[in-house]
């Protein structure tokens, strides 16, 4: 009989990735050591809910730094470093099993070094997260005992038992194993966020953050919690990995969101990060709009401010709810927008990353864009509600980008910015021009590789949006980088004093 209570698991939050230029400055700008732990909260709750003894080991906490490689980019030499705690200070026999999550390609080498250290005394190491899902064989080659391919969490408990020699009751699925046995890659029964175990109060406290990318916050030690309310997405943008998780779209009910929110509040949160890939996917279902209003009201009643830190789809904020049909009504749904975006100085939306993306050219890669005029209307409707901080995300570096297309983009966004500033002179609006990052496993990544436009085939470089890694058919990667810097200036002169970093 397998007893999870007798198993101790060490769950590793990887140290942070940094890039030092030849002057010794960290190109990536800010530290993450006080960030909210979104993924870890779900995973800790999942394993603790099944009875395991789990210790969170957060290797971002600390001032240690170590370099592990270098490369030339744009005529300068960059040193790759990891920051936080020395990987080797935690004894690799401290726990029965080790768990590592890596959602970001840019951290891949750090993940490999971590796997090597924790596997060195023969204890199994299980790895999950988006980058491992996209390139599992490389993680196995780095020494992982198993890679969790299932985003939904359905494989988590069985794989723990399996690596300790216990045969699960149901056939294993949703994992890749180093021992050569290959169970089905897709989970037989994916979990629903509704069924995710709630974190204990202690876990919610451990996962709380107190900063977000250098953004000014209303007060010091403003606790930030998180609720991952949905997995998957109904759209299929070609640069995005989310449609590749094969979990469809699954949304937590308002009641369950309320339970997570209460816990965040009790743990000390004043705000919550809502970072689903597609929070508004729920609006497509009957009653979904009411669910959105209900969730936002629950958060307001608890006096929890909201961060849409991972974007929220604008097209679904229209009366036609973003459904692609002829003559769809693209009028802003003002009631819905107010519930999602309004900031009254204490409650509501403090920060929103808005995927405004490609208003003029380069639209074909997306599946969620509005016509430019309607896009402007939605942006104005949002700004009218008083949202405190808006970061407006654009991806540049698609194959057809040229000086001409990017000049027109720049002009369009300056215009928009001026219009928004006249609607609400207090809005803190910053353009975040990301260079295309070829996310492994996506159609865009395949295309860029095949077309020969990839200049740096190194995950530390292509995984970072500030080390431009692709040429377009008309521009070199450095010209794209120059455009990135130039677009960052939009709206900046007016709001420089807010201290928003260049980096997203
Ligand atoms: C939240 C988020 C962020 C937040 C992170 C904040 C934080 N403090 O955590 C912010 C906004 C900062 C961010 C930034 C970026 N992000 Co982001 N982000 C996400 C997002 C939406 C959620 C991650 C998450 O928490 N998932 C929820 C948990 C539950 O899932 P999970 O971690 O995979 O864990 C589950 C399973 O995988 C499994 N599991 C995982 N690990 C383990 C381990 C063990 C032992 C076991 C048993 C199971 C297991 O169990 C869990 C379920 O129970 C993902 C997409 C996604 N849906 O995952 C993109 C995603 C990871 N981001 C992406 C990108 C590109 C970025 C940026 C580069 C882009 C940008 N605009 O700046 C930056 C890079 C930041 C960096 N540090 O490197 C890409 C990464 C692709 C890649 N291969 O690199 C993703 C996949 C989205 C996409 N568009 O495709 N991001
Ligand atoms: S809408 Fe967002 S989450 Fe969905 S596929 Fe497009 S970029 Fe990815």
Care to describe what's here?
Residues 493-504 have low confidence and may be disordered. This protein has helices at 38-49, 108-119, 130-134, 136-141, 156-163, 201-206, 254-267, 288-301, 334-341, 372-384, 403-423, 443-451, 459-462, 477-488, 492-495; strands at residues 8-13, 16-20, 53-58, 64-73, 76-84, 97-101, 125-128, 146-148, 175-177, 224-226, 230-232, 249-251, 271-273, 305-308, 348-354, 389-396, 428-435. The chain is an alpha/beta fold and 504 residues long. The protein has two domains: 4-177, Rossmann fold, CATH 3.40.50.280; 222-498, tm_1862 like domain (pyruvate-formate lyase- activating enzyme, Alpha-Beta Horseshoe). 29% of the residues lie in helices and 18% in strands. Helix 7 packs parallel to helix 8. The protein is built from 15 helices and 17 strands. Strands 3-1-6-7-8-9 form a six-stranded mixed beta sheet, with helices on both faces. Bound molecules: cobalamin and iron/sulfur cluster (SF4). Cobalamin binds at residues 35-36, 38-39, 42-43, 46, 99, 101, 103-106, 126, 128-131, 134, 148, 151, 153, 156, 159, 228, 240-242, 275, 277, 309-310, 434, 437, 439-440, 463, 465, 504.
């Amino acid at each position: 009989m397998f007893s999870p209570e007798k198993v101790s698991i060490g769950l590793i939050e990887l140290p942070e990735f940094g890039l030092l230029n030849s002057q010794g400055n960290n190109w990536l700008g800010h530290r993450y050591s006080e960030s909210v732990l979104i993924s870890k909260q779900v995973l800790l709750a999942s394993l603790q809910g099944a009875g395991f003894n789990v210790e969170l080991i957060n290797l971002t906490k600390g001032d240690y730094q170590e370099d592990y490689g270098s490369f030339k980019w744009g005529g300068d030499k960059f040193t790759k470093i990891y920051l936080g705690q020395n990987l080797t200070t935690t004894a690799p026999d401290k726990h029965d099993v080790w768990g590592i999550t890596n959602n970001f390609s840019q951290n891949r080498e750090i993940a490999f070094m971590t796997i090597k250290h924790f596997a060195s005394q023969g204890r199994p190491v299980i790895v999950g997260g988006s980058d491992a899902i996209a390139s599992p064989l490389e993680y196995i080659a780095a020494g992982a005992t198993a890679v969790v391919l299932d985003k939904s969490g359905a494989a988590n408990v069985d794989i723990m038992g399996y690596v300790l020699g216990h045969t699960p009751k149901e056939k294993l699925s949703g994992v890749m194993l180093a021992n050569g046995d290959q169970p089905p890659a897709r989970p037989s029964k994916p979990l629903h966020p509704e069924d995710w175990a709630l974190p204990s109060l202690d876990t919610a406290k451990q996962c709380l953050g107190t900063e977000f990318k250098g953004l000014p916050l209303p007060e010091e030690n403003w606790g930030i919690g998180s609720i991952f309310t949905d997995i998957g997405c109904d759209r299929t943008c070609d640069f995005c990995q989310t449609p590749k998780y094969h979990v469809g779209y699954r949304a937590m009910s308002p009641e369950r969101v309320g339970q997570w929110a209460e816990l965040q509040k009790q743990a000390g949160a004043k705000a919550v990060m809502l970072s689903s890939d597609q929070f508004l996917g729920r609006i497509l279902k009957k009653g979904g709009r009411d669910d959105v209003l209900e969730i936002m009201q629950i958060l307001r009643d608890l006096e929890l401010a909201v961060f849409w830190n991972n974007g929220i789809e604008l097209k679904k904020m229209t009366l036609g709810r973003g459904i692609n049909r002829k003559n769809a009504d693209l009028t802003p749904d003002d009631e819905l927008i107010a519930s999602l975006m309004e900031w009254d100085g204490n409650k509501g939306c403090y920060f929103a990353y808005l995927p405004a993306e490609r208003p003029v050219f380069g639209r074909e890669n997306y599946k969620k864009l509005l016509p430019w005029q309607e896009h402007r209307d939605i942006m104005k409707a949002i700004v009218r509600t008083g949202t405190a901080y808006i970061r407006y995300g654009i991806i540049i570096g698609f194959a057809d980008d040229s000086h001409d297309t990017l000049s027109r983009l720049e002009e369009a966004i300056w215009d928009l910015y001026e219009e928004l500033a006249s609607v609400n002179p207090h809005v803190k609006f910053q353009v975040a021009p990301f260079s295309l990052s070829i996310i492994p496993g996506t159609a865009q990544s395949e295309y860029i590789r095949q077309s020969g436009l990839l200049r740096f085939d190194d995950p530390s470089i292509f995984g970072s949006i500030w080390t431009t890694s692709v040429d377009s058919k008309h521009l070199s990667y450095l010209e794209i980088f120059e455009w990135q810097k130039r677009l960052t200036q939009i709206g900046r002169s007016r709001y420089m004093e807010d201290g928003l970093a260049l980096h997203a």
